[in-house]
Write a structure and sequence with these properties.
Strand 4 (about 115-120), helix 6 and strand 5 form a beta-alpha-beta unit. Strands 2-3-1-4-5 form a five-stranded parallel beta sheet, sandwiched between helices. The two termini are about 15 Å apart. It is globular and about 40 Å long. By secondary structure, the protein is of the alpha/beta class. The protein has seven helices and five strands.
Length: about 170
């Protein structure tokens, strides 16, 4: 079994979680995010899970503070990587938005197993790529990704076909 870590990124609403769910139909998958401990802290402070621009900015700002204070987001995903390496799972999806944080994680993770980066771009009529008002969401293109997947499917079924073929023929063969 070949372990693969995929740092997955893309603007809000581009289909990252849907793509991870589709992959989980084919491969044993673990899905983690560097924002998870930040969301837990925000929930204690009264955030109730909204994904509106104000909440996205608050989470991005809080993540930036904890990155500077004690590097909590990176420590969290590296601990999740260590757990993944002890399992029978084949793919670890790691959601990280900021280019500097992606680099830091990839540098550490690539010493332990195959690690790649994947940018998801959505190109459908019902999707807007307008700025969301925070650096984490608005600057996802600031990293040089190994792969880019274009989500232009008009339905989840068509997306599933495209994702399965892309992972079988490109990502898992690499």
């Amino acid at each position: 079994m070949r372990k693969t870590v995929i740092v997955i990124n893309g603007r809000g609403g581009c289909g990252k979680d849907t793509i991870c769910d589709i992959c989980a139909e084919l491969y044993p998958v673990v899905n983690v995010s560097s924002i998870t401990p930040i969301k837990e802290i925000a929930a204690i402070a009264g955030w109730n899970g909204e994904k509106d621009p104000k909440s996205r900015k608050m989470l991005a700002d809080l993540k930036e503070l904890f990155t500077a204070y004690n590097d909590l987001p990176t420590k969290y995903v590296l601990s999740e990587l260590d757990k993944f390496l002890e399992t029978a799972n084949e793919i670890l999806f790691v959601h990280i938005r900021e280019a500097s944080e992606i680099k830091k994680f990839v540098d550490a993770a690539s010493k332990k197993c195959r690690t790649i980066t994947l940018l998801i771009k959505r190109q459908t009529e019902d999707y807007s790529d307008k700025a969301l008002g925070n650096a984490s969401d608005d600057n996802v293109n600031d990293y040089d990704y190994d792969y880019t997947f274009i989500n232009d499917a008009k339905s989840v079924d068509l997306l599933a076909e495209k994702v399965k073929a892309y992972f079988r023929d490109v990502i898992m063969k690499g």
